[in-house]
Specification:
heterodimer, A: ten-stranded mixed beta sheet, two-stranded antiparallel sheet, 12 strands, B: alpha+beta, Alpha-Beta Plaits
C-alpha cells in the first residue's frame, strides 16, 4: 500500500468513525430531559381555573347579554358523530376553542388493540367527528396521539382509530421517545415532574377525547385518568398513590375541550374489556371544558356518585373544579 | 463475425445469471420485509417449502401442502438444467458468489473466480463431502429431527436477515431520526416518517434477538469460506446443493465438449463457479454443473456447448464408505431419538400459540425464524439452551422482554412447515400455552403491603384471568391495611405473558408464566 493510498484510507476511516460516533451520541440523548433542567411548561391559553360555579350566577346575567355557555353538554342519539356535533355546538361551537390556523392535538384513549364494539378504545366516529369539526373551524393541523400500553401499531390499527383519523383528515402520530420532555409539575403533591408529550404544550388547542370505562384501581377511567396516555417513562410505578398522581398531572395539563365518549360504555372488566356482555350501549357524549366536571357527570352514567372516585374528591379539594352536580349547568339534548 | 456474436451471447448469459441472482435476492428480502403484522397477501411464508430439503422433512413429519409441488419441480430440475437453482435462483449463493474473490485475467476479458487457496489434500476431502452431508441429513430426517435444516441455505439467509439485518435497520432508522431531530425544522418530517415506519421497520420497543453473535458467526463463516475458495460452502458443504447434485447425477442435458476442438488449456476449470470441471476437461461433474456456461465464454476454441447426455465424471464414494457413514448416522440418529433431551421439557420453554407437540416442533421446525420476523411484539425469540442442542433456534416466548399480542396470530400463518399451525384469531385466543403463577414472596401487594394492580389491569382475557381479592391484613409495620391482592384464575389463563411483561417488580417478574401441556379450549 502506498503512502498516499494509506493516508486516503486513514482519512475515510476517521470520517466514518466520527460520523458513527456522533450519531451514536445522538442516540444516547435522553430526549425526555432535553434541557438539562426540568422544563417548566404550561398549556397555552387556558384561563386559570375558575372555581366560581356558573350555575349559581345565572340571575346576574343581563337579558341583553347572550346566555353563557353551559358547563356541560350531554347529547344522546344513534349517530355518534351527530352527538358530538350537537354537544360541541351547545358549548358554543368549535370556533370557541379552535381559531383559524390553530395547531390542535387530540388525545383519544387507545389503550390496546380491540375492535370498537368492545368499548376499550375511543369510538372512531366520535374521534372523527372531533377531528372534522376542528378542521372545519379552520385548524391548521389536527394531530391525534396516544401512548398505548401495547404496541402502538396494533393498538391504533385494530381499534379503527388509524382509519378514522386519516379519513377525517387528521394526522396520526405514533410517539417515540423523542416526543417526550421531562416537565415540572409545580402543583404536584406526589408527582413533581414526569416526561410528558411535548406536543400537548406546543399546541394551541388540546382536546381530550376519552371513553367511559371501569378501572380496577381508579374505579372509573374517564377524562382525568386518560391523561396517563401522555405520560412517558415507566408507568408501572404510578400505581402507588394512584389517585393523587392522576390529580397531579391534571393540575398541569388542562385540556381546552373534553369530549367524553359514552356511546358504548365498558361497565365491567375494564380497562381492557373484550367481552360484549360487559358493554352497555348508552349512545351518549358528554362535552365540557373542565375535566373534573365532565368526570363528575360521567360517574352518573355508571350509577355512581362523584364522591365515589378518590381522585375526583381530591381534585375538588385542590380546587381543580366542581364535582357537585347541582352547581353545574348542563345542556341536554337528543341528536 | 459469427464468433463475435456467440461471444456476445455467452457474455449475455453471464449477465443474465447475475441479474437473476440479484433480482431474486432482492425479491427475497422484499418478501421478508413484508413479513410483518398485519400480513397482506404478499409475504415470504410458504415460499420456503419450494426448498426440497424443507419439503421432504415436512412430508416425513406428515405435513403436506400445495406449495410442495414447487419443491418437486426444484428437485427434478437438475435432470434438464443442472444445478441452475444454485447459479440462478439461490439468494444465499448470490451472496457467497458476491464475496468470492475475482481476478482480471492478463489477456483482458471478463473478471473470473480466483483459484482455490485450499491445500490439495484438504481439497480432495472437501470434494468428496456432499454424499456424506446428504447421509447425515437423511439420518436426522429419519429420526424426526429437523435440526439439519439449520444448515439449509434458504433458512440460513432468512434467519440471518431476521436476527441481524432488521434489528440493525431498526437502530439505523432511530439514529438517523435522532440526528435529524437535532434540527428543529426537520422534526415534523421525522415524526411523520417515524409514525409510518413504526411496527414495520422501527418498533416501539427496539427489535432485539438472542443468539445474534452465534448467527453472525455462522453466517459470516459460511460466506467467509468463499475467500479460501470461491463458493466453497456451496460447492462442498451445502445440504441442498448435495441433494440437487444427487438428481444431477442423472442429468439428461448439460455441458458437452467437442474433443476434436478442445486444446486442454484448462481455462474452463478455473472459471467454473461450482467446481464442476476437472481432470480431462472433456467431461462434466453433473452433480455440480449449474449451467452458467462461463466455461464456454472463456473457451478459446469454442469447444463447449450444451447438449443431450453429457459425458460425466461424478465422484463415486466406495460402497464400504457409504455403508459406514450410513451406519454411523443411524446410530447417532437412534440415540438422539431415544435420548433424555427428547423427553425432558424445560418448564420455562413456552412455544408460540399453535405450536405442535414438542417432539413435532423439533422434527418439523425449519429454524428459519420467519415467526420471529413477523412477531410484532418481538416476544418470539430463538431458543438457545432451553430446547436442548437439537432445538437451537426454534421459537420460544420471552415474556420478560415482551408479550403475545391479543390481536395477532401471524406466526402460524408464516410458518412454512406447519410446526406452528395457522390459528384463526378467535382460536388463538383460546389456546393455552402456559399459565401464570404469582410469586407471593415478591408481589407488591403480597410482600410489600402496597397497592398494585398492573397485571390485573392489563390482562387481556375478556373476563380477566387475574382477580384482585380485597383483603384487610395486618401490616408488619403496624396497623391494618386494605388492599387488593392478585390471584390467578387458572381455568381462564392462556399464558400470553402480558402480566409477566408488565409487572413493575424489577428483573424477574413477580408473576411468571410457566409451561403447561398445550390444550385448546372450545
Amino acid at each position: 500500500m502506498e503512502r498516499r493510498e494509506f493516508c486516503r484510507y486513514l482519512g475515510v476511516c476517521t470520517v466514518a468513525a466520527c460520523t458513527g460516533g456522533l450519531a451514536g451520541c445522538a442516540r444516547l440523548i435522553d430526549w425526555s430531559s432535553g434541557s438539562r433542567d426540568t422544563a417548566s411548561r404550561s398549556m397555552s391559553g387556558t384561563e386559570t381555573t375558575s372555581v366560581q360555579p356558573t350555575g349559581t350566577s345565572v340571575p346576574t346575567a343581563t337579558p341583553e347579554a347572550p346566555a353563557p355557555p353551559p358547563d356541560l353538554a350531554v347529547w344522546t342519539g344513534d349517530d355518534p358523530e351527530s352527538n358530538v356535533r350537537a354537544a360541541i355546538a351547545a358549548l358554543g361551537g368549535m370556533e370557541r376553542f379552535v381559531k383559524r390556523g390553530a395547531k390542535v392535538v387530540v388525545k383519544p384513549n387507545v389503550l390496546t388493540g380491540r375492535a370498537p364494539k368492545y368499548a376499550t378504545t375511543t369510538n372512531p366516529q366520535v374521534l372523527a367527528g372531533v377531528v372534522k369539526m376542528c378542521l372545519e373551524a379552520g385548524a391548521a393541523s389536527v394531530v391525534v396521539l396516544d401512548r398505548p400500553t401495547s404496541s402502538a401499531r396494533q393498538a391504533f390499527d385494530v381499534s379503527g382509530l388509524t382509519a378514522a383519523t386519516q379519513s377525517a383528515g387528521g394526522t396520526l402520530k405514533i410517539l417515540s421517545d423523542r416526543n417526550f420532555e421531562r416537565v415540572e409539575i409545580p402543583g404536584g403533591r406526589s408527582l413533581t415532574s414526569w416526561p410528558l408529550v411535548a406536543d400537548v404544550f406546543d399546541a394551541d388547542v388540546f382536546i381530550n377525547v376519552p371513553i367511559a370505562k371501569t378501572h380496577g384501581m381508579a374505579g372509573l377511567t374517564l377524562s382525568m385518568k386518560n391523561l396517563m396516555g401522555i405520560m412517558g417513562g415507566e408507568r408501572g410505578t404510578i400505581h402507588q398513590d394512584f389517585a393523587q398522581k392522576i390529580v397531579d398531572v391534571n393540575t398541569l395539563v388542562k385540556p381546552h375541550l373534553v369530549v367524553l365518549d359514552a356511546y358504548r360504555m365498558l361497565i365491567r372488566n375494564g380497562p381492557t374489556g373484550g367481552d360484549l356482555r360487559d358493554v352497555r350501549l348508552a349512545k351518549t357524549v358528554v362535552a365540557g371544558t373542565s375535566q373534573v366536571a365532565v368526570d363528575a357527570f360521567g360517574t352518573t352514567l355508571f350509577e355512581m356518585k362523584p364522591t365515589d372516585l378518590d381522585y375526583l374528591v381530591r381534585a375538588a379539594e385542590q380546587g381543580l373544579g366542581i364535582i357537585d352536580l347541582a352547581l353545574l349547568s348542563v345542556a341536554r339534548g337528543q341528536a | 463475425m459469427a464468433d463475435a456474436a456467440r461471444t456476445r451471447a455467452r457474455r449475455g448469459l453471464r449477465r443474465l445469471r447475475k441479474a437473476s441472482q440479484y433480482t431474486l435476492l432482492a425479491a427475497f428480502l422484499v418478501l421478508l420485509t413484508l413479513t410483518v403484522w398485519p400480513l397482506g397477501h404478499v409475504y415470504l411464508g410458504a415460499f420456503l417449502v419450494a426448498d426440497p430439503l424443507i419439503a421432504a422433512n415436512s412430508a416425513m413429519g406428515g405435513v403436506l401442502r400445495i406449495e410442495m409441488l414447487l419443491a418437486v419441480v426444484v428437485l427434478l430440475s437438475p435432470l434438464l438444467l443442472g444445478r441452475a437453482f444454485c447459479g440462478y435462483v439461490c439468494p444465499t449463493g448470490a451472496l457467497a458468489e458476491a464475496v468470492s474473490p475475482t481476478e482480471r485475467p492478463s489477456d483482458g476479458g471478463p473478471p473470473r473466480m480466483r483459484a482455490s487457496r485450499v491445500p490439495a489434500r484438504a481439497r480432495a476431502i472437501l470434494r468428496a463431502l456432499p454424499p456424506y452431508v446428504l447421509i447425515a441429513c437423511g439420518g436426522l430426517l429419519l429420526f424426526a429431527s429437523g435440526s439439519f435444516l439449520f444448515f439449509d441455505p434458504l433458512t440460513t439467509l432468512t434467519r440471518s436477515a431476521t436476527v441481524l439485518l432488521y434489528p440493525a435497520l431498526d437502530r439505523l432508522t432511530r439514529v438517523i431520526g435522532d440526528v435529524a431531530y437535532l434540527a428543529p425544522p426537520l422534526r415534523g418530517g421525522v415524526d411523520a416518517v417515524t409514525s409510518a415506519l413504526t411496527g414495520r421497520i422501527v418498533f416501539t420497543r427496539p427489535l432485539t434477538y438472542g443468539l445474534q453473535l452465534g448467527i453472525l458467526g455462522y453466517f459470516g463463516m459460511m460466506l467467509g469460506l468463499s475467500r479460501l475458495e470461491p463458493r466453497l460452502w456451496c460447492r462442498h458443504l451445502c445440504p441442498l446443493g448435495a441433494l440437487l447434485g444427487l438428481t444431477g447425477r442423472f442429468a439428461l442435458f448439460g455441458r458437452v465438449v467437442d474433443a476434436e476442438v478442445c486444446i486442454q488449456c484448462g481455462k474452463c476449470e478455473h472459471v467454473c463457479p461450482l467446481d464442476a470441471v476437472s481432470g480431462d476437461h472433456l467431461s462434466t461433474d453433473t452433480a455440480r454443473c449449474q449451467l452458467g456456461l462461463e466455461c464456454a465464454e472463456v473457451c478459446p476454441t469454442d469447444a463447449i456447448r450444451v447438449g443431450w447426455l453429457p459425458s460425466r465424471t461424478t465422484f463415486q464414494p466406495s460402497r464400504r464408505a457409504l455403508l459406514g457413514a450410513s451406519g454411523a448416522t443411524l446410530l447417532a440418529g437412534f440415540f438422539t431419538y431415544t435420548g433424555l433431551s427428547r423427553s425432558e421439557r424445560d418448564v420455562r420453554l413456552i412455544r408460540p400459540p399453535g405450536a405442535r407437540t414438542e417432539t413435532e416442533v423439533l422434527g418439523l421446525c425449519s429454524r428459519c425464524g420467519q415467526c420471529m420476523k413477523v412477531c410484532p411484539t418481538n416476544v418470539l425469540q430463538p431458543a438457545v439452551t432451553r430446547a436442548g442442542i437439537e432445538g437451537v433456534f426454534t421459537p420460544q416466548m420471552d415474556y420478560r422482554l415482551s408479550y403475545c399480542d391479543w390481536s395477532c396470530s401471524e406466526c402460524g400463518k408464516v410458518c412454512p412447515t406447519g410446526a406452528i399451525m395457522p390459528l384463526a384469531l378467535e382460536a388463538k385466543r383460546k389456546t393455552t400455552i402456559g399459565r401464570a403463577y404469582i410469586d407471593r414472596n415478591r408481589c407488591i401487594p403480597w410482600a410489600d403491603y402496597k397497592t398494585c394492580l398492573v397485571c390485573q389491569e392489563l390482562c387481556p382475557i375478556p373476563d380477566k384471568a387475574i382477580a384482585l381479592r380485597e383483603v384487610e391484613v395486618d401490616d408488619p409495620r403496624g396497623g391494618k391495611v386494605r388492599l387488593g391482592r392478585p390471584e390467578v384464575l387458572v381455568e381462564r389463563c392462556i399464558g400470553c405473558g402480558v402480566c409477566e411483561n408488565a409487572c413493575p417488580v424489577p428483573n424477574e417478574s413477580a408473576i411468571v408464566v410457566r409451561a403447561v401441556a398445550p390444550e385448546r379450549r372450545a
